[in-house]
Amino acid sequence: MKNIVLIMADAHRGDFLGCLDNNVTSTPHLDRIAEKGALFTNAFCTAPLCCPSRQAIVSGGYPSNTGCFTNLHQLPAHTPTFLSELVRAGYHTVLAGKSHMEIHAFNSDLTSRSHAEYMKTLGWNELYEISGSMLRTGIRCAYSEFLRDSGMLSEVLTYHRKWHYFMDSPSSGDPAYIVHPWPFDEHFDESRFVTDQAVNWLKQYSGSKPFFMQVGYYQPNHPRDPLPRFLEKYQNQKAPFPGGAQISVPEKYLASRTSYRAEISQIDEYAGEIFGLLEKKNMLDNTFFIYTSDHGCSLYERYGHPELFGGEAYANFFQAAVHVPLLAAGGGFNEKRKITALTETIDLGKTICELAGIESHRFDQGKSLIPLLSGKIDQHRNSIYSEMACDRMLFNGKYKLMRGDPLSDKRLLWKAAHLDRPVNITPSVIRLFDLKNDPYETCDLAGNYGYKNTLAEMNELMLQRISENTRAQPYLNRGEYRPVIV
Fold first, then answer.
1. Beta strand pairing status for 287-293 and 3-10?
2. What is the CATH number of the domain that holds 437?
3. What are phi and psi of 319, to 5 degrees?
């Protein structure tokens, strides 16, 4: 039975890899992993937001089936997951870092017995969790307690309060795009903490049981706190915009683009450290290593067009937000492959279960990637489907259809009590792009009469995917969907 290590970054967009952007982004370790295994160039997240994306991976269910539409919906306890199937098969499951299965609410406690019991119902045996940007709100987690025990918690909280947090009242602090490099020893950095937990666990692993380990980083999401040594790599570089576009963006925003790459380089080094340890311990032949992200992030490519997510943003369906990195190596899959087939992150659960020699649960809507990795097939899906709340996206490899627009949704998502049930609102915005001829999505064809038949065909394909994806899930109780109201 193979061991599995899944590393999941937060908001790492798919085109920011050295092997894909001519080394504008320095990722030598991820590039080396791609050389030793498979690089998926058309991988897309199931939802362009943390909770719905991560919960879809774990449960194998699209958000409209799990009821997890936003970051204020947690995965109901006892939801079937690929993790539970692994545990039943004799695996030990370990989480180091971010999971975001439960709502990160003010003053919640990810170290509590009740949280551990909740996570156990989803298949987690051992937890070393972080809360990412929510640390400042009073959340207790393994990282906060590490800082507390080190006498650093107060200083780190003061540092994090340099920035305005969207739930702050009254508003105070710098906006998120202002960069304040990490001022403390690297030992106290959150991503370093996550890596240390993973590395220490792997060093002590005795081989008595097969294991699944998820390593969850919060970076490069909101790239405002990079380690100085990574930021220095980019200080004299101007990061180009996709396609060499000339976009006039104020310098204060460009700093966050530079910091974003610095944080990717940091995660690259840490992922390489974990991969290197597996090599050093001669574990890689029997350990399958995966790197991906929950979603991507737009970075001012559309500056001046807020209706097109012109700032630092995800929760939209433009390529920067939905296209994610996906690399896999080890566990017997050591042949270099560049896989261009359309893939979704919801496919990871069934892939992991097949690696373990078991079947996933019967509600899993993913599709195993093993035939692609084995070279038995070169096509996987006819289309990519992504959703968030009442908004939908379909991409068939050439045309992308977007229906709905989170920015036009005025329901105040973080306060909406009615988000405890599926929402079906007629989308107010429809967009259509030809990514073969317009890879940077600059020309919306939805209103072009010459594409009316294409638009009709894509609408029909989307309806088919919605129909295929929508399933009755008898294990769910609608009453469990209610979010925390703040």
1. parallel
2. 3.30.1120.10
3. -50, -40
Structure confidence at residue 73 (pLDDT): 80
Amino acid at 63: P
Name every residue whose Cβ is closer than 8 Å to that of residue 314 and which is 6 or more positions away in sequence.
11, 48, 49, 295, 296, 297, 298, 321
pLDDT in tens, 22-63: 889 999 999 999 999 999 999 999 999 999 999 999 999 999
Q: Indicate the residue among 333, 348, 373 that finishes a domain.
A: 373
Return the beta strands (E) in 81-238 as ranges: 92-97, 126-129, 211-220
More confident residue, 289 or 174: 289
pLDDT, average across residues 351-370? 96
Using CA atoms, how far apart are residues 152 and 149, in angstroms rounded to an integer?
Answer: 8
The helix/strand/coil state of 365 is coil
- The model's confidence at residue 356, banded by pLDDT at 50, 70 and 90, is very high
Tell me whether residue 354 is exposed, middle or buried, using C-beta atoms within 10 angstroms of its C-beta: 0 to 12, 13 to 18, 19 or more.
middle
Phi first, then psi: give them for residue 214, nearest 5 degrees.
Answer: -110, 130
**CA gap 34, 70 in Å, rounded:** 32
pTM to 2 decimal places: 0.93
Residue 379 lies in a domain: no
Domain span holding position 338 = 3-373
Q: How many C-alpha atoms does 391 have within 13 Å on its Cβ side?
A: 23
